[in-house]
C-alpha cells in the first residue's frame, strides 16, 4: 500500500507540471489571438481604409444578375456589392466596361449599373471592382442587347 502512495506522489507533480505548462501555452495563444484581433479592428476603419491589418482580409464581390438578355430600348440593372471577410467592412465598388468606354445609356448609383433605353452597341462585358487593403478585386457581368426585328414595345 505504501508503494502505491509513493507512486501517486511521484506522478502527481509530473501531471501537475504538464497541466500548468499546457495552461500557460493556451493563455499565451489566446493573448496573441486577441492582440491580432484588436490590431485588426483598430487599423481598419468602418468602411475601407487600407492598412497592414487589412491585408489579412479577403473581399468577396457579388453581382446579380451575372447576365442580362434584353431587347433594344429596354432597361437593365446589375447590382454589385463587395464585403470583406470580417463581415463588417463593405468596400466601395465601381463599374467599368471591359476593353471599351462606358456607353452613354449607362450610369452608376449605389453599386448598381443601370442602362436606360439600351442599344445593341451596349452589349458587352462589364466589370465591378473594389479595392481594399492594397488589392484589387473584380467580378463580371454580361449584357446582351438584341436588336428588334419588329417594333419593340
TrEMBL record:
Stored Pfam families: Ig_3
UniProt protein name: Ig-like domain-containing protein
Signal peptide: none
Superkingdom to which the source organism belongs: Eukaryota
Record SUPFAM superfamilies: Immunoglobulin (SSF48726)
InterPro entries per record: Ig-like_dom, Ig-like_dom_sf, Ig-like_fold, Ig_sub, Ig_sub2
Listed PROSITE patterns: IG_LIKE
Chain ranges of the Ig-like domain: 50-144
Amino acid at each position: 500500500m505504501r508503494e502505491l502512495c509513493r507512486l501517486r506522489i511521484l506522478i502527481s507533480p509530473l501531471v501537475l507540471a504538464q497541466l500548468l505548462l499546457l495552461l500557460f501555452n493556451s493563455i499565451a495563444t489566446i493573448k496573441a489571438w486577441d492582440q491580432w484581433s484588436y490590431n485588426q479592428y483598430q487599423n481598419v476603419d468602418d468602411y475601407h481604409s487600407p492598412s497592414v491589418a487589412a491585408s489579412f482580409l479577403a473581399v468577396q464581390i457579388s453581382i446579380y444578375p451575372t447576365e442580362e438578355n434584353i431587347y433594344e430600348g429596354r432597361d437593365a440593372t446589375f447590382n454589385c456589392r463587395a464585403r470583406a471577410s470580417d463581415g463588417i467592412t463593405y468596400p466601395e465598388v465601381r463599374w467599368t466596361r471591359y476593353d471599351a468606354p462606358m456607353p452613354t445609356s449607362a450610369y452608376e448609383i449605389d453599386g448598381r449599373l443601370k442602362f436606360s433605353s439600351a442599344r445593341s452597341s451596349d452589349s458587352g462585358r462589364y466589370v465591378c471592382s473594389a479595392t481594399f487593403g492594397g488589392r484589387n478585386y473584380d467580378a463580371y457581368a454580361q449584357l446582351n442587347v438584341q436588336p428588334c426585328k419588329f417594333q419593340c414595345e
